[in-house]
Amino acid sequence: MKKTYKLQDLCCVSCASKIENALNKLDFIDSAMVNVMTQKIILETENQDSDFVIQQTQKVIQKFEPECKILL
User: Which of 8, 16, 39, 57 could make an S-S bridge to 34, C-beta 3.0–4.6 Å?
Assistant: First the structure.
């Protein structure tokens, strides 16, 4: 499953890179790409529980960019 989500208040390119690297290390994420310019995150996963994926992704985002939120 490949999903694209809009992000709100992602400001830092360095933080985006850290978020992307952290997400790509998670077992349930096959691929993660974060784009500061478009304010989007693209997640590819085999996990069918999208609520779980979003919740865990938001936790990772909060570690590096506390003001950033996934918009559903």
Answer: 16
